[in-house]
Amino acid sequence: MTRFKIDTENNITAFGSSEHIEDSGGETEIFASRQELAALAEKWPATRLVEIWNSLPGIEPVERFTSRQVAVGRIWKAIQHLEPGGAAPRPPARAKRPSAPKKATPPARKRAASHNKTERVIALLERPEGATLKAIMRATGWQTHSVRGFISGQLKKKMGLKVRSSKREGERVYSIKRRS
After folding, report:
1. Per-residue pLDDT for 111 more than 50?
2. Does 94 fall in a domain?
3. For 17-38, what is each residue's pLDDT tens digit?
4. Are 75 and 120 found together in one domain?
5. pTM of the prediction?
6. How many domains does the chain have?
């Protein structure tokens, strides 16, 4: 059975079952199973678990773990490939990965025609006849409660527009005065 030793610098060393592990007087901790690692990790701050993980070779660094159990599980799995007798070497400084290539911008003509949803809704409401709730839903893909919330929150409260609401032939119609 492989046993592991972790020091205060978060270096993990693997030992074969026949090798003797020197006790460094409280500066190192020894474990041989995931459960023993979990018991040790209960005493450590979460930042130490992140530091241990980020110091392991060949892994993708993280900023935090979702839970202590997830951290212990990942660390345990990662150290299983360590050779007895050798410490886990620190990974070399990673070069910044190039960002994903940017998507080509659509032609200006196409972009100008689409606008954003706020502009589309305002254009509909500025028409002399206004716009029905259903027309706004079709233009935006929103549900009725989203359209009403947008009109109340974005247009009335945030933008300060005077939106009128009325019923025409049993259907809700919204309109605003044309902006100057």
Report:
1. no
2. no
3. 665 666 555 678 888 889 998 9
4. no
5. 0.45
6. 2
Q: Does some domain include residue 120?
A: yes
- Give the whole-angstrom CA distance, residue 167 versus residue 68: 57
At residue 122's C-alpha, the angle toward residues 121 and 128, to 5°, is 105
Could you report the per-residue pLDDT of 64-78, keeping only the tens digit for each? 889 999 999 998 898
Q: Quick check: is 90 in a domain?
A: no
CA distance 57 to 10: 13
* Contact indicator for 7, 26 with CB cutoff of 8 Å: no
Q: Within a domain: residue 153?
A: yes
Q: pLDDT category, 175, cuts 50, 70, 90?
A: very high
